[in-house]
């Protein structure tokens, strides 16, 4: 009665002792599906002519939201990425908007937070144009794209967009199963 248990325990202990020596890869952060890691976020640029509401729905269908900007570093990194991946697309919906707001504040729809970093293009924000915000390329025919800044648009205006998801941190762990073990990737 006792022996099988003892032997089982001994085998399990040996197994666990062995497992300690199986090297595990360090945790890595990355992006799933067709998202690319940019500025510490997972981004996906969609070159469809959707209005803000459709763009927002499209991002939701991918488990994401429209993107936001938190600081100058992010603007720079996202600008470099857009300029390199979609150099002929000059406008992208962000999650920025002031829908339903009477004041002058803008909000990031994907976080629900008030937007504090708003790198407006010259002459913006033109609140009378609409309630939604795009990232717009400052473009000249001879010099190409000089930079990207925020512009207020009518939310029904069609434009490409960028979806944002958080990066996923994964780690390889050894998991014990009855009679065997397998190597699985876990989401942290
Ligand atoms: C990724 O993009 C490819 C090519 O556009 C598409 O066929 C595929 O369905 C996309 N994968 C996901 C998970 O959206
Ligand atoms: C920019 O914002 C990101 C996300 O909040 C943060 O991780 C990063 O440290 C910020 N960079 C600077 C220079 O403020
Ligand atoms: C585009 O960049 C040029 C040069 O920096 C600047 O003079 C102009 O005001 C910018 N245009 C907008 C709309 O921000
Ligand atoms: C946005 O566009 C729609 C349809 O063209 C129009 O009815 C509406 O008045 C516009 N809104 C603003 C704030 O310009
Ligand atoms: C965008 O890319 C073009 C071509 O590589 C380059 O000439 C231009 O300086 C870039 N613009 C920005 C703002 O990085």
Secondary-structure map with pairings?
Layout (H helix, E strand, L loop, with lengths): L1 H18 L8 E3 L5 E3 L2 E10 L1 H10 L3 E2 L5 H14 L5 E7 L9 E2 L23 E9 L3 E10 L5 E7 L2 E10 L2 E8 L1
Antiparallel strand pairs: 1-10, 2-3, 3-9, 4-9, 5-6, 5-7, 7-8, 10-11
Question: Can you describe what's shown?
Answer:
The structure is a single chain. The protein has 188 residues and is an alpha+beta fold. It has a single domain (32-167), classed as Mannose-Binding Protein A, subunit A (Mannose-Binding Protein A, Chain A, Roll). It is built from three helices and eleven strands, in the order H-E-E-E-H-E-H-E-E-E-E-E-E-E. The chain has helices at residues 2-19, 52-61, 72-85; strands at 28-30, 36-38, 41-50, 65-66, 91-97, 107-108, 132-140, 144-153, 159-165, 168-177, 180-187. The chain has a four-stranded antiparallel β-sheet with strand order 2-3-9-4. A hairpin with a 3-residue loop joins strand 7 and strand 8 (144-153). The longest helix has 18 residues, at 2-19. The two termini are 41 Å apart.
- Sequence of secondary-structure elements: HEEEHEHEEEEEEE
Q: Which ranges are low-confidence, i.e. pLDDT below 50, for 5 or more consecutive residues? A: none
Radius of gyration, CA atoms, in whole angstroms: 24 Å
Helix content: 10-25%
Percentage beta strand: 35-45%
Classify the fold: give the CATH topology: Mannose-Binding Protein A, Chain A
**CATH structural architecture:** Roll
Small molecules bound? 2-acetamido-2-deoxy-beta-D-glucopyranose
Number of helices: 3
The end-to-end span amounts to 41 Å
> Would you report the number of β strands?
11
């Amino acid at each position: 009665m006792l022996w099988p248990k003892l032997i089982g325990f001994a085998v399990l202990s040996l197994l666990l002792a062995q497992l300690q020596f199986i090297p595990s890869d360090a945790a890595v952060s990355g992006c799933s599906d067709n998202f690319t890691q940019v500025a510490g976020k997972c981004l996906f640029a969609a070159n469809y002519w959707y209005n803000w509401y459709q763009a927002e729905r499209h991002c939701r269908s991918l488990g994401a939201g429209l993107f936001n900007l938190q600081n100058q570093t992010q603007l720079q990194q996202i600008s470099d990425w857009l300029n390199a991946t979609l150099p002929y697309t000059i406008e992208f919906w962000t999650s920025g908007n002031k829908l339903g707001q009477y004041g002058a504040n803008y909000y990031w729809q994907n976080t629900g937070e008030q937007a504090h970093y708003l790198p407006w293009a010259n002459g913006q924000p033109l609140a009378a144009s609409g309630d939604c915000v795009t990232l717009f390329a400052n473009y000249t025919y001879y010099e190409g794209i000089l930079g990207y800044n925020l512009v207020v648009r009518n939310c029904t205006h069609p434009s490409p967009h960028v979806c944002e998801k958080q990066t996923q941190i994964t780690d390889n762990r050894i998991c014990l199963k009855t009679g065997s073990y397998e190597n699985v990737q876990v989401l942290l």
